[in-house]
Each structure stands twice: as structure tokens, then as C-alpha cells.
């Protein structure tokens, strides 16, 4: 789904609601330029064979993020339905407008790289789209800068240095003397004295036939500044107001001045809220401050009105903000190292100089991030296999489970496959995360040929895995192996008291079964019943009904009894897990690690400790 400047106000509530209900969010960015290694750059040590250190690579990417602009952003929200065994994906594609409202008093500078522009246009990117359809945004730093600039401006107005006549030329001194004379004459005038004085009178500034006032015909910006400075320094009971061609002087009114001061602050805050734009979504992603968002944007949302018909938009807004702060979705990307650096510069502020400080800052924003490039190349050799997003996606496309569906209202990419469009790439990233994590967690090995080519998977279905371990005369050891295999494929979770789910964190077990001395169970019918159970898991809740009756028939010492109880309990709560819970030990291997090929370290570890926010598990 494309979201443009024209449709953003209607789309923002849905974006935030999708974010709040997501298991994870896949992110992709497109830039006006990318970092290139500077000629003469040296590696970190003599044994690196021309590779950069991670710090040097970070500095290179930091320089690019400071020079270039994020032009397009893609987000795919993934919602997990464990009852149907399906992931529902909602991809969004958005352009960003780099132009700021000049009334904010903040400037933004960026550039284009010719090779990047050539690449984008070759892939169908409309270079005018960021300016015609792009969403406004304001980084945290830019917002702070706008507020500070206004405060400094007000402070400068209140603290005016004394005028030093000795530093002025004769013409400026004569001009100030004439202004003093006009002000003094106006102040001392009695009778029908007007409530203001214009210097010069507008008619005199525009009409050459008007009599010339010595020293004051038309006033330029420098002379306007001199008048303001003179009034603030020598006439505390007066106020000067700048107009296009003249200065108006009026008596000081404390109440009126306080109102004007508050009005300026209010006007600036309104402009900040309007310019914040896409950063509302960013604040939702990082559990940030959404308190200034207008609750009226949620008008029409299905859950924003109570049953009694009375609107409760403010409460709905607060509840949504609380949920976003409490349950931050996991951030997923492909080649996330570069995207996170640009994301931080674009929406947060200046990048720190040290990589260690950047890692700490990112970890505070995102307790858990997952780089699918790292997952796909985990434990690879330094030969750096091809790890492009499209190749990995194509290699996993044959997998039927977990099931993935696209929301019908987000059908743009069902037929259209625009590579290097941020929304489409974020959709591919979400699919890769789902399929690759399910594959790796299921114990399926990845065999990489000399060149990556396509990801070759040694596939083993659940039924094949179970049945292949069964000999004509089963042994107790074989039965234990069957149970272990079932644990690998149906990994259930018991809920905590607060409704969240915890992982059993079982260590993977080998599927290889050594030959053992046969043991006669004398229970062939029981064996066939269990085999049938694995091919069609029970749908009844709890331990009653068919499952309970099967338990009653089982030998108390049968190794299948515990397995059946565990399976029934799992179906009672949420059904089978689709991919490992994000609290699972599995993600200590693959989470918070960014692949950075071309460096000595090859991996940027963000630290797997989770602080400051509950993960969506």
C-alpha cells in the first residue's frame, strides 16, 4: 500500500494500530547516495588483508548518512495467528519529503550521488516523488533545535546591548539622532496623539511627492535593526514592531506582550506537530513520546468508540500509546547495519563518533533487532557468499510452512514485483525472516555449494522425520527419538499469569537413531494410534474427549503418554508456534547481530540483553 502526503492523515491511525498489533516489523530504506571507501583508506591492522575495521566502516557509513537523504521507506507489519498457523503481512511504501517549513527556523542540507540516482531511476524510482508525494518528518534533534532557536530569539530581544556610537559611521549616528527626535516628539505630544508612531510613514516611503524627513526616507534592514535596538535600549515603555517597509512603535503592555509570547510558542508547537509527520510512526516503533498527537486522527477507528456511543478518542489514543510503549515489536531488516545508521540520523539526531556509543543508542531504541543477512550467512566462511535479498527469498519460496498471507487491502505486490522499492523489499524481508527462522529452528541444514547460487535445503517433513526413525519392531530408544522429534516440530508454550508466553528453551536433539536391541512392546495397535495422532494433531481443547480417552488407553509407562499430555496442553492455549518466540534461546544466536562483510570483525554485535521495554513474544 502506498501512503502519500495526501493520504497520510487518514493512514496514520492504521499505521499505528498495525504497529501495535504486530509481532515484528520489517524495515527497508532507499537513499540518495551510499558510502564509498575513500582512496588511500587503510585497514585497522596489517593482517586484515585490506579489510576495514568495524569502526572505520561505521565512520564511512556515518559520513554517507550525514551527506545523503532517506528518500523512501518500506514497512511490513507481521501479525501472527497461531490458531490458523498463518502470518498476515501488511506492506506499506512511503516517500519522505526532505523539505522543511522555513518558519521552523531549521535548515536541512542533503545531496545526491549520481551513481545512486542512476541506479534508482533504472529501477523505476520517480525522482520527483519525494517532493510531490513525500511525507513530512522532523527528527528529534530538529524539533529541539526549533524550540531552542525560538527561546534564544526571545532571549536576545530581552537582552539588548547598549548602542556604541563610536563604532558607527556618521550616517548611522545621524539616522539614530533623527529617530530619537521623532520618538521624543511623539511621546511628548498631547491632545489627539495617535496610539502608534510609524518610522517612516508608509506614504513617505512609497510616495516621492511626500516631504522628505532628514535622515529617514525608506529604511533598509540594517536601519530597522537600529530602530529596534534603540527602542529596547532607551525606551522601556515602548515596543517596536517590524513591518515590510517601516517600523511601528506602540506603548508597552505587559499582558499583551505575554500573550504574543505564548502565541509564538503555540504557533511554533503547531508547526512542529504538523511537520513531525512520519516520525509519529518512528516514535511508535521505539516506544517514544506520542503525547502531542491529535486524538481526533483516530475518529472512525473501529475500537475508538464505546458501546454506549460516546466517543472516547482521547482514552483510545492513550491506550494505544501505552501499548506501543509496553510492547515494542521486533525490528527486522536485511543488511541492517547501513539502514540503522541512516534511520538514526534521519529521525533521531546526530550520530555519535564511536561505534560503541552507536550500538548503545540503537539498543536503547530497539531491544531486539534481527538482520536476515546475518541469519542467512551465519557461520559462513570469509569468502562472503552472495547474500542478496532476492536470492535468499527465491531459495526459500518453496516452503509452504509457516503459511503467509497478504492482507487483501495491501495487494500492490501480488502481481507487481518492483525490486528495490522499499515497500516491496520490506515484504521480502518479512517473508525471509518467517521462512528462514522456521527452517533453522526446525533443524534443517543449509548446504552451500561453492557459489551460493540458490539456497539448497535438505528438507525433511515432520511426518518423514518421525516415520523414518521407526523400525518394524520399535525400541524404547526409538520411541524416545520420536518424542524428541515431535518436540522439535511442535514447540508449545504455557502462558504466564499476564498472558505472555514463555519458551521451553529446549536444546535441539539429534535425529540420528543408532540401532538398538529390539524390545517387544506387544502394543502394535498403540503404535499405530500414535502414528495417526502425529499426522492429525488433536483439535479438542484440554484433556477431555478423544485425547482423554486415548490417555486412558495408554500404558502409564509409555513414552508417548507425556508427549500426548504436552501436545493437548499446547492446543488448549495457543496452538503450535510458527517461529521461535522472540524470548527463545534461538534468538541469542541470531538476534542483535548485524552482518558487515568487508570488515575484520564481519559482525556488529548489539548485545542481546533486553532492557527498557517488553518484547512482543
Outline of this structure?
This protein is of the alpha/beta class and 617 residues long.
Helix content: 40-55%
How many domains? The number is: 3
Quaternary state of this entry equals single chain
Rough shape? elongated
How many distinct helices? 22
Largest sheet, strands/sense/barrel: 7 strands, mixed
- Strand content range: 5-15%
Low-confidence stretches: 208-212, 306-310, 445-521, 533-550, 558-576, 608-617
Counting DSSP E segments of at least 2 residues, the number of strands comes to: 16
The CATH top-level class label of the largest domain: Alpha Beta
Q: Label the structural class.
A: alpha/beta
At CATH level 3, the topology of the largest domain is Nucleotidyltransferase, domain 5
Mean pLDDT: 75
CATH architecture of the largest domain: 2-Layer Sandwich
Q: Evaluate the radius of gyration.
A: 34 Å
CATH superfamily of the largest domain: Ribonuclease H-like superfamily/Ribonuclease H
User: What distance separates the N and C termini?
Assistant: 27 Å
Provide an overview of this structure.
With 617 residues, the chain is of the alpha/beta class. It has 3 domains: 2-135 and 278-445 and 593-615, 2-Layer Sandwich (Nucleotidyltransferase, domain 5), CATH 3.30.420.10; 157-258, no CATH class; 474-573, no CATH class. It has 22 helices and 16 strands. The protein has helices at residues 8-20, 54-67, 114-122, 129-132, 140-158, 170-188, 202-206, 221-234, 254-276, 279-285, 313-326, 336-347, 355-365, 372-376, 389-396, 422-441, 462-468, 476-489, 524-535, 545-553, 559-573, 586-590, and strands at 2-3, 24-31, 70-81, 86-95, 197-199, 238-242, 247-251, 327-328, 330-333, 369-371, 403-406, 446-447, 456-457, 593-595, 603-605, 614-615. Strands 1, 2, 3, 4, 9, 10 and 11 form a 7-stranded mixed sheet that branches. A 3-stranded antiparallel sheet has the order 5-7-6, covered by helices on one side. A hairpin with a 4-residue loop joins strand 6 (238-242) and strand 7. Helix 1 runs parallel beside helix 10 (279-285), helix 6 (170-188) packs across helix 8 and helix 15 (389-396) crosses helix 16. It is elongated and about 95 Å long. Residues 208-212, 306-310, 445-521, 533-550, 558-576 and 608-617 have low confidence and may be disordered.
Amino acid at each position: 500500500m502506498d501512503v502519500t502526503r495526501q493520504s497520510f492523515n487518514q493512514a496514520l491511525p492504521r499505521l499505528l494500530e498495525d504497529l501495535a498489533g504486530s509481532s515484528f516489523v520489517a524495515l527497508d530504506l532507499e537513499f540518495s547516495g551510499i558510502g564509498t571507501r575513500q582512496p588511500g583508506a587503510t585497514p585497522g591492522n596489517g593482517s586484515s588483508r585490506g579489510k576495514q575495521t568495524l569502526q572505520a566502516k561505521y565512520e564511512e557509513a556515518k559520513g554517507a548518512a550525514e551527506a545523503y537523504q532517506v528518500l523512501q521507506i518500506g514497512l511490513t507489519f507481521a501479525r501472527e495467528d497461531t490458531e490458523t498457523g498463518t502470518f498476515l503481512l501488511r506492506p506499506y511504501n512511503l516517500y519522505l519529503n526532505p523539505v522543511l517549513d522555513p518558519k521552523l527556523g531549521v535548515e536541512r542540507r542533503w545531496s545526491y550521488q549520481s551513481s545512486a540516482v542512476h541506479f534508482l531511476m533504472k529501477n523505476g524510482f520517480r525522482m520527483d516523488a519525494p517532493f510531490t508525494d513525500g511525507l513530512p518528518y522532523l527528527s528529534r534533534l530538529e524539533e529541539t533545535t526549533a524550540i531552542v532557536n525560538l527561546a534564544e530569539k526571545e532571549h536576545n530581544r530581552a537582552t539588548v546591548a547598549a548602542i556604541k556610537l563610536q563604532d558607527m559611521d556618521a550616517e548611522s549616528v545621524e539616522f539614530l539622532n533623527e529617530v530619537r527626535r521623532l520618538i521624543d516628539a511623539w511621546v511628548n505630544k498631547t491632545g489627539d496623539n495617535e496610539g502608534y508612531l510609524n518610522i517612516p510613514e508608509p506614504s513617505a516611503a512609497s510616495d516621492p511627492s511626500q516631504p522628505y524627513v532628514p535622515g529617514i526616507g525608506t529604511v533598509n534592514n540594517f536601519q530597522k535593526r537600529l530602530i529596534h535596538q534603540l527602542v529596547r535600549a532607551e525606551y522601556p515603555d515602548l515596543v517596536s514592531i517590524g513591518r515590510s517597509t517601516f517600523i511601528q512603535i506602540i506603548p508597552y503592555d505587559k499582558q499583551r506582550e505575554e500573550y504574543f509570547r505564548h502565541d509564538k510558542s503555540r504557533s511554533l508547537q503547531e508547526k512542529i506537530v504538523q511537520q513531525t509527520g512520519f516520525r509519529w510512526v518512528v516514535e511508535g516503533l521505539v516506544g517514544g513520546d506520542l503525547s502531542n498527537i491529535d486524538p481526533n486522527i483516530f475518529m472512525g477507528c473501529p475500537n475508538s468508540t464505546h458501546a454506549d456511543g460516546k466517543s472516547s478518542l482521547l482514552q483510545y489514543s492513550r491506550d494505544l500509546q501505552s501499548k506501543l510503549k509496553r510492547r515494542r515489536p521486533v525490528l527486522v531488516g536485511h543488511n541492517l547495519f547501513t539502514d540503522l545508521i541512516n534511520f538514526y540520523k534521519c529521525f533521531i539526531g546526530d550520530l555519535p563518533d564511536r561505534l560503541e556509543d552507536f550500538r548503545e543508542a540503537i539498543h536503547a531504541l530497539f531491544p531486539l533487532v534481527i538482520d536476515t543477512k546475518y541469519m542467512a550467512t551465519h557461520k559462513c566462511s570469509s569468502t562472503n557468499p552472495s547474500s542478496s535479498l532476492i536470492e535468499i527469498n527465491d531459495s526459500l519460496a518453496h516452503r509452504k510452512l509457516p503459511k503467509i498471507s497478504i492482507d487483501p487491502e495491501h495487494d500492490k505486490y501480488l502481481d507487481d514485483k518492483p525490486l528495490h522499492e522499499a515497500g516491496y523489499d520490506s515484504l521480502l524481508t518479512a517473508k525471509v525472516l518467517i521462512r528462514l527462522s522456521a527452517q533453522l529452528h526446525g533443524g534443517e541444514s543449509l548446504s552451500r555449494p561453492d557459489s551460493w547460487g540458490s539456497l539448497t535445503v535438505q528438507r525433511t517433513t515432520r511426518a518423514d522425520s518421525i516415520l523414518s526413525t521407526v523400525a518394524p519392531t520399535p525400541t524404547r530408544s526409538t520411541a524416545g527419538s520420536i518424542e524428541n522429534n515431535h518436540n522439535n516440530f511442535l514447540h508449545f508454550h504455557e502462558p504466564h499469569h499476564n498472558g505472555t508466553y514463555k519458551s521451553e528453551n529446549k536444546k535441539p536433539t539429534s535425529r540420528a537413531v543408532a540401532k538398538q536391541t529390539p524390545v517387544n512392546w506387544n502394543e502394535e495397535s498403540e503404535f499405530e494410534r500414535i502414528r495417526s495422532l502425529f499426522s492429525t494433531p488433536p483439535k479438542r481443547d484440554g484433556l477431555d474427549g478423544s485425547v482423554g480417552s486415548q490417555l486412558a488407553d495408554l500404558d502409564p509407562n509409555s513414552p508417548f503418554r507425556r508427549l500426548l499430555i504436552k501436545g493437548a496442553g499446547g492446543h488448549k492455549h495457543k496452538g503450535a508456534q510458527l517461529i521461535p518466540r522472540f524470548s527463545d534461546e534461538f534468538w541469542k544466536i541470531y538476534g542483535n547481530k548485524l552482518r558487515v562483510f568487508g570488515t575484520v570483525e564481519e559482525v556488529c554485535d548489539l548485545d542481546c540483553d533486553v532492557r527498557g521495554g517488553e518484547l512482543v513474544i
